[in-house]
């Protein structure tokens, strides 16, 4: 009976996921009848409401990739090192204070982070770096890093905390310093969990909508520098979906953009799975 | 978003949660019309405590789409419906009825420290098409112009495109913002930015530019002298009835809703 209950739950989520995927493809693919795939993926012009419209998502795609890469470059070291510090170095008291604070960051609504980026961080960037606008790729990357650090940190910390005690003790017993133990033993041993954490954090960054809508600037350009405004895919979907006439070309094009986003996230997850599998810690002997 | 708008929104959520028995109406659409609607709704609900009206922005395109999909009672729009939208509405059995509620002057705005005070409509078009890229060419400092536009769901954008851009496209390097408020924020925080907003959003944080020597304000908009003026509308599905009709009448009443039109900085019609 209980088994049946769990099985039903599992199958329901699989079916729902499948239905969403079917829907996504059903609503996105028709754009390719009127607009060639090549032009859609590599076109430089995104003017969905012009006459005739242009649906080239290349600048949006590049914008998304750049924002994700830049925010990961900030969030991964920050998140993993914080986790390392919390799990290995910080005392119980410090940990009890810092951990909830980091996790509280995750509770901040994205619109609040976006607003902060817009009214506080953007003017600061303008003055500090003398750039034309503070609403740009870098601002979006920093705000997204804010959002993914708690995810990366708390999952990594669990992974690091889960490393068996005997591994650590063996390493110390062999004469390794605490630093060497952390770097050579604990980090590799928890790599599987950390990679999951990183991918989850990155998925959050690539799919996040509100922040990029507010602070990325929204210009459909391929950025030349980290201080150029960009228009990531989710920002375009969010800004335009509500106005696109139901089952019109613009609507199909937005769903097709959604497919591209989905493929990206899927690729990320598959990659994470591979890494997690390769570095899986099944016993002390696999190190 | 202003704190007051947030408070109003929060208040409304509470109201909706508390009384399912009350008459409730929803209003969606143009952020240009939003200030009029918020003032009117506040006053109307004070006078009629058993009525709940929830108001949200999102742009004219979104409002019109919501009325076609039947997810709102009133759509706010800072432009008239397009032919395509009317066709779509008819297909779905929706008969949108327009009511003009006011006239707005669309004003180009820059940072208060910007020395430029007057631009011709051709200059504005060249700026937004990306042909003029430095303030130096307009008598300002030697700095790159940061062009801020509304996104495509905005009626303000469509008006701008129609009255300023003509056949030109707003160039891809323009920063797109989702509401009048966001444009004000962005322009007020950037000394080299230029944007455009509904007259009701004009305050000390930005500086309005004259267009070909004519100042955009309620008087010049009403007299037709100002080149970028437009009507503000609300749409209902079919001729309004019951509470909806009462509220629409309130908006059009010269001593009630129309006073709020004036308070919000637009030109009342009646």
From TrEMBL, chain B:
Ranges where the PBP domain occurs: 22-253
UniProtKB keywords: Phosphate transport, Signal, Transport
CDD domains: PBP2_phosphate_like_1 (cd13653)
A GO term for molecular function: phosphate ion binding
Annotated SUPFAM superfamilies: Periplasmic binding protein-like II
Leader peptide range in chain numbering: 1-22
GO biological process, one term: phosphate ion transport
Domain of life: Bacteria
General function of this protein: Involved in the system for phosphate transport across the cytoplasmic membrane.
PANTHER family hit by this protein: PERIPLASMIC PHOSPHATE BINDING COMPONENT OF PHOSPHATE ABC TRANSPORTER, PHOSPHATE-BINDING PROTEIN PSTS
The family this protein is said to belong to: Belongs to the PstS family.
Name this protein carries in UniProt: Phosphate-binding protein
Organism: Desulfobaculum xiamenense
